[in-house]
Amino acid sequence: MAKITLDNLAHSYLANPTSEDDYALKELNHVWNDGEAYALLGASGCGKSTLLNIISGLLKPSRGRILFNDQDVTDAATAERNIAQVFQFPVVYDTMTVRDNLAFPLRNRGRDEAYVAERVQEIARMIGMEAELDRKARGLTADAKQKISLGRGMVRKEVNALLFDEPLTVIDPHMKWELRTQLKSLHHEFGHTMIYVTHDQTEALTFADKVVVMYDGRVVQIGTPQELFETPAHTFVGYFIGSPGMNVIPATIEGNVANVNGSRVPLSQAFGKLDGKVEIGVRPEYATLSASEGLPVKVRRVEDVGRHKIIRAEFFGNDINIIADEGAAIGADMNRVVFDPAHINVYANDWRVEGEAA
Hints:
By secondary structure, the chain is of the alpha+beta class. The protein has eight helices and 23 strands. Helix 2 (about 100-105) packs parallel to helix 4.
């Protein structure tokens, strides 16, 4: 296992980058703890796979260093880093059996056959392929082949890190849940440092100890699922995490009051003068539709999604979402909204601002 340090790391695919916009990966300075499970989460093109390929050694950064346990591995080949990587699409040896595919990483490192047999059986059970161990990989489905790729990545216990690049893309939904559960169990059992790239927030939040949210080549927040939900450090985090995402509303701030189109919204903290683009962020879970309190909204439609209702509304020209309990009655006279002051975040130029006790 390894502590992974990103030291002034940045990368551009251009030969001579001249501005920050030329970098696919903006400067990063982070330490990822030994033995923790991280998910790299973000939209396509945000830099997730670029960062993963730098960690694995498939790509050399334009500048900066990467360290494993404080040892500089920036120029080290992938094989020298002692990592296992599973890619988005299955990489298997079609002419080999499932058993031999799973055994290959161990035999390649000279492990004795008794250990190989035991470990292969254990991994085959974990990925649900015990019955196919003696079948050639060539005739298997794409999701079965990807399970082999996952198994081959997990078969070695002593790796510095396990890296997964959207590994469940071709897996059917039910098997995705099972394999995520198995990966989490594997992490708890062996304590590998794991990094899991995905654009799926459910995968990220259910797999990882810490989620690393990336946007436009930057890491905008590293936190637990609760931290990302309650206190998004950037408006993108609020938008990307949650279904529906956080409501972001233009405002001006005066002390412990947000002014939205001339109406006052109380805050639980006080703020000084804020410059630039100022907004408040409120999760739909912390907005309540009312007939008598709060600020006026225009309800457009109500969507019953089974566990709760999502109210789509217009609030001073902004689209907002409100979540109500499944059994809640929503009358025609309910045309006002109340925000919970304790759960209103304030943003200046998309970054969260910390206030003081009001």
